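Morning run. Coffee first, then this:
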Amino acid sequence: MTIANFTPWSALVGGALIGTAAALTWWGLGRIAGVSNIFGRLLTFERGHWGWRLAFVAGLFAVGVVAKLAFDEHIAFELNGGEWQMVLAGLLVGYGTQLGNGCTSGHGVCGIGRLSPRSIVATLCFMATGAIAVFALRQGGLL
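And here it is:
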């Protein structure tokens, strides 16, 4: 089995940038950089915190646009399903992150970095479920 398109340097730089952003958000604002929570609370128009949440989410979109413009030949995006499928998937992911008090990366990067017992347990559950799913799919010949 080979790993297609493995890019260790870009993965290392990307991981370091994500970790740095999470640390700066924690040290600078005293807030956890959990994107699902930041975006979800942005939609509630919570007083006193709306500005920094909007700036954070706008920054995520801006970086994506700049990366696409600067590195278009290296960024591939293919929508296999329809637009409605993507909208439904986004809504389900959003609901799941609210139900689980965060997403996999939020618990993994921010929660484990703070030594949160809840995040450590959640991340272990995510990883175990993923491993079981891959094992089951491979045994069934679907992967």
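The chain has one domain: 9-139. Good start to the day.
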